[in-house]
Automatic annotation (TrEMBL):
Keywords linked to the UniProt accession: Signal
Source organism of the structure: SAR86 cluster bacterium
PANTHER family according to UniProt: ACID PHOSPHATASE-LIKE PROTEIN
Listed name of the protein: Acid phosphatase
Keyword S-adenosyl-L-methionine attached: no
Keyword Signal: yes
Organism lineage string: Bacteria, Pseudomonadati, Pseudomonadota, Gammaproteobacteria, SAR86 cluster
GO-annotated cellular components: cell outer membrane
Gene3D superfamilies xref list: HAD superfamily/HAD-like
Length: 266
């Protein structure tokens, strides 16, 4: 079956000769999925459709004098995709996230809107539901301007200093979320990392994260709308103790242990 599939791929595309390249790369499966899978894109539509249903319900249930409605969203891999950056890493034979090239890539303003993001955000705007963008990024002094440029280039609404928060020194979004919640009824939070929803997920162990996600199972698709990200996030931190682990064989071995933690032992 797999042979048939590979033959079809080989026949349908002119595959370049890469015999001189390193074809063993930790990132390959995840990045190929991001670049090609209709399922990846459909999960974004699914998330935004759920978010819209939550908003429609909240709009119907509004009562006179109630606080204005709001959505709080993460930015990267939630509203803006960076798939071309990850493809670049594979071409560079890099198999871990690289912060210095990421900063250069961000400055070139190449992020693109995730599937369904523009439509959902426009729905928010049309219904006077304010959108607050809260992201953790650090590209130095120009961090905020880069984030604004990325969001504005996508044509998103509410891209201004009142609605865009960039945390340069922390990934803790709760303080900003609480400030927004004092003035607005926050209907949903959007993110690709559980930490985008609550700081209680900022724990160090894989098993702790898994337990917390089970405890909060009723919240997903209701209060928390989660988008897929198989390349980066705090799931990486839970494995390595570092969200951006250095590329070395020790970490490749740690990755292998993670991948085989419940492997068939036959
Ligand atoms: Mg993100």
């Amino acid at each position: 079956m797999l042979l048939v599939a590979l033959t079809q791929v080989a026949c349908s595309q002119q595959l370049p000769q890469h015999s001189e390249q390193n074809l063993h790369n930790n990132l390959m499966y995840a990045v190929a999925w991001k670049q090609t899978a209709a399922e990846y894109r459909a999960l974004y539509h699914q998330g935004f459709n759920l978010a819209r249903m939550r908003l429609e319900l909240a709009l119907v249930n509004r009562t006179p004098g109630s606080r204005p409605l709001a959505v709080i969203s993460d930015v990267d891999e939630t509203l803006l995709l960076s798939s071309s950056y990850w493809g670049y890493l594979v071409n560079q034979r890099q198999d871990f996230f690289d912060d210095s090239s990421w900063d250069k890539w961000i400055a070139e303003n190449r992020t693109i809107a995730s599937p369904g993001a523009s439509k959902f955000l426009q729905f928010c705007k049309e219904n006077n539901v304010e959108v607050f963008y809260v992201t953790s990024r650090n590209q130095g002094e120009e961090t905020y301007q880069f984030a604004l440029a990325n969001l504005a280039s996508a044509g998103f609404p509410y891209v201004d200093s009142q609605h865009v928060t960039v945390l340069r020194d922390s990934s803790n979004k709760e303080i900003v979320q609480q400030q927004i919640s004092e003035e607005y009824d926050v209907v949903v939070l959007l993110g690709d990392n559980l930490n985008d929803f609550s700081r209680r997920y900022y724990v160090t162990e894989v098993d702790q994260r898994l337990e917390l996600s089970e405890e909060d199972s009723d919240k997903y698709g209701r209060d928390y709308i989660l988008f897929p990200n198989p390349t980066d996030g705090h799931w990486i931190r839970a494995i390595f103790g570092d969200s951006e682990p250095p590329a070395n064989d020790q970490n490749r071995l740690i990755f292998k242990h993670a991948a085989t933690s419940s492997a068939w032992s036959r």
